[in-house]
Specification:
Layout: E1 2-5, H1 10-15, E2 21-26, H2 31-35, H3 37-46, E3 52-57, H4 62-67, E4 75-80, E5 83-89, H5 94-98
Parallel strand pairs: 1-3, 2-3
Antiparallel strand pairs: 2-4, 4-5
Length: about 100
């Protein structure tokens, strides 16, 4: 399951989460983001219970994007223990997402 979050939920859902988290910065208008929908669903399904998958809309997340140096969507950050452990930008495979952890 992919959880859509807002900036006010970031601390509880991502930074303070006990399990690893994959966070996607996306935009509803972005065709590359739409191309990642199935890949992200497959990743979430394959890692259910092991890795939490969240999405945040770039329209709401300007401060978070600045804090983490995100300037393009889709962008993916892997978090573990509240710290970024990996990052990738663009249309990627499920295997690339798995390598972030």
């Amino acid at each position: 399951m992919i959880r859509k979050i807002r900036p006010g939920q970031f601390a509880a859902e991502v930074r303070d989460c006990r399990q690893p988290v994959l966070l996607e910065f996306y935009a509803s208008w972005c065709p590359r983001c739409a191309m990642m929908d199935d890949v992200l669903e497959e990743f979430a399904s394959a890692n259910r219970g092991k890795i939490k998958v969240c999405r945040i809309d770039e329209a709401d997340a300007a401060l978070l994007m600045e804090e983490y140096g995100i300037d393009r969507v889709p962008s993916f950050l892997a978090f573990s223990g509240g710290r970024v452990t990996g990052a990738v930008v663009g249309v990627v495979s499920q295997e690339v997402l798995e390598k972030l952890f």
